[in-house]
Known about the structure:
This protein has 355 residues and is an alpha/beta fold. The protein is built from eleven helices and 14 strands. The chain is globular.
Amino acid sequence: MVPLRTAVIGTGHLGRIHARLAADAPHIDLVAIVDVSEKARQEVAEQTGARAVASYHEVLNEIDAAIVATPTVLHHKVVRELLEAGKHVLVEKPITTTVAEADELVELARDNGLVLQVGHVERFNPGLECVADKLEDIRYIQGIRASGFTFRSTDIGVVMDLMIHDIDAVLSLVKSRLVNVFAFGVAVMGEHEDIAQAQLHFENGCIAQLTASRVNYEPARSMQVFSSTMFANIDFAGRKATTVQPHPSLLAGEFDLATLSADQTAYYREHLFEELLIKQELEPEQTNAIAEEHRDFAESIREGRQVRVSGKAGRAALAVAEQVLASIAMHHWDAPPLGRRGAHMLPAMPLRKAG
């Protein structure tokens, strides 16, 4: 099997991870490291054994595909030129800065018969993978994603930086049309929102409540999913999941609390999660999600099949993120004539004293 000749474009935090994993992947031949910074590209090239170049145009005739990990604002231009040159592309999330740009890339990839994959890496997280196919008729989802401020990705806010991972995961699970969005956010470190909360309402009645923060003193990456027959806690950080399934008698409405004796009540109190709400810890194989993302990318190209997170899926997550940002922008923190609105709750304007 001939490895996929690939260039990694961008040597920031994620670009370096992509480069290191691609260099070790048997299905990828890492041809080049691309970055405008000579020091950065040379450093990563030395670590991986790949060639260092300032522009991807220098290696277009030497590669079959590219992994794009540039700042988001450059995604559209870089990916468009790669697709126009006939190259398959794995681009980090978000796919682009606007839905209109994403639509252009999706159409270009389709018309040229190329794979366009978006780096929503949580789809490859073992914690989600091990439970996703067990969840049907989902009614409610609660997700939280929090980190400290990394001083990276400051060109976008927390919605595009972190929450979009959970948006993509929710869309992959619910598979229903979004009908309403309510959200608010707070800017702490700069112009963009650093804390956001969004409630998504779907046509099938499902509701998803998502919270994201990149100024948290404790990290968190989890999602709780309630279906009509199961509860699942997905631990993205621990890459595992816990499920709770009601006993068939509960689902059928045949369990009558009023008829329990004192001894039965005491027994079920001690054995609730063994007898009535049956708890199971799922410990999947601990694979590297980005390495699995690379494998899916390379194999989809060789086999002519769809990737797990297509350009269309990346576009869908971006469209929801745009709706979240629009709702944040509309939020008023004060009654007129005070003017705090959008994500700009801080610093607070002086408030008039009562009386």
